[in-house]
Amino acid sequence: MTRLFTPRPYQSLIIDHIAAHPRCAIWAGMGLGKTSSTLTALDLLSALEDVFPVLVIAPKRVARSTWPSEVTKWQHLSGLRTSVMVGDPAERRAALRAKAEIYTINYDNLPWLIDELDKAWPFRTIVADEATRLKSFRGSFQVSKNGKTFYRGDGGIRARALGRTAHRTPRFIGLSGTPAPNGLRDLWGQMWFVDAGRRLGRTYGGFEQRWFQTAYDGTVKPLDFAQDEIQSRVRDVCLSLRTKDWLPVQEPNLVPVYVDLPRKARQIYQDMEREMYVRLESGEVEAFGRASADMKCAQIASGALYVDDKATTWEVLHDEKLDALESIAEESAGAPLLVSYNFRHELARILKRFPDARELDEDPKTEADWNAGKIPMLVAHPKSAGHGLNLQDGGHNLVYFGWDWDLEGHEQILERIGPARQLQSGYDRVVNVYYILARRTTDEQRLARHRTKASVQSLLMEATARYGA
Question: Is 80 exceeded by the pLDDT of residue 92?
Fold first, then answer.
């Protein structure tokens, strides 16, 4: 059954911003209705200009279910048809030939679509949902000696493919809740699709030279004035809405749960950290470079270390984190737990320790069973539990068993059951977030780095935030 749509004040801001800016970005937090607002804006604009057909690019789950379900949910959108280009090539071609106003596709299939259409590009609007997937782009339009404009692209395959046609499309809308998950350098690729480099520079190299410096250890850091200048340059086309400014969202209850490595595991950790080499019962393990050593240290902190190059065989070193997870489960008194893991050996060991636990997979029934309260412990990797997935009905307790350096995935899995999602679904309950931390390991360093990155993103969102008239 369709429902009447009455835009809330923050949704009206989104609609007006899209109407006023043919190429723009919407940075809106969880629960602020980016999808329904974007669809409404395009539906209204269609009376004035040709905005259809629309190509929506999104993570697979979102392209397959979220956008089509939003169209069918609202009464004023009932005249719009959707076609989902997800599946094998034959299914995608059939969906592409179907008559529709809105076509959805996942990012991985984007190169296929652009090759399939070649120069016969029919879309009048592109919506990039979770536009941070485009942050790797490193291309530009350049002018040759004879005055002819040509395109040069580099970076990720998907972003590079979209770069071939993005500026042949009159309207472009980038949607994200986390525009700069790993710092200001994430913005250039996303903004190029909005303005072809007019605000932040025609090339990524020029962008870095202007606002960043490389330290002696090879790390790239923003100059003191970079944040203010970059924010000022993008503010006109980027609408930023923070959930906490519009909804009475409670902060999550963060609970650090510390464990100590047993003596033998601590020695192995130190050997890997200092010598980048350890000898185990299963054989020798060597790290080739600091990044590799850090990853192996994270494995040791979680309880096991891969002993082969293909990461299929591991040696268990301790069960401290599993014991901590068991204590959390007991203290939760039967309340469901969403558990985030980093390495496959963590997943295997958790499922072995907890026979009733389930892995979040591609089967829609798993999500449905969790939300129906049939799964006491759902174990998920951030990359499989990210954008567009609704898990708030199943619980409000999250455990980080292991994590990497990426802030975006870290935040996205929290948002699946986070405060905004709980409020959006009518639940008045606190979200508990447990971090199982091995003392004096990279666990603590990674969490500290996440907080630093989050502060950069918070400043960006605050500086570009809109609060209405």
Answer: yes
The one-letter code for the residue type at 270 is: Q
Query: pLDDT above 90 covers what percent of the chain?
Result: 53
Displacement of CA 370 from its chain's centroid (Å): 21
Domain range summary for the chain, segments of one domain joined by +:
9-247, 253-265+318-460
- 196 to each of 200, 202, 204, 326, how far by Cα in Å? 9, 7, 11, 51
pLDDT for residue 451 is more than 80: no
- 400 DSSP β-pair partners: 340, 435
What confidence tens digit (pLDDT) does each residue in 456-465 have?
676 677 767 7
> So what's the pLDDT on residue 150?
43
Question: pTM here?
Answer: 0.68
Of 3.40.50.300, 3.40.50.10260, 3.30.2280.10, 3.90.1150.10, which CATH number belongs to 253-265+318-460?
3.40.50.300
- Phi, psi for residue 401 in degrees, rounded to 5: -80, -40
Q: Which of residues 362 and 333 earns the better pLDDT score?
A: 362
Q: Reply yes or no on whether the pLDDT at 304 is more than 90.
A: yes
For residue 406, give the nearest of 220, 201, 193, 133 by alpha carbon: 133
Nearest of 98, 71, 194, 188 to residue 138 by alpha carbon = 188
Give the chain's mean pLDDT: 88
Q: What is the fold of 9-247?
A: Rossmann fold (3.40.50)
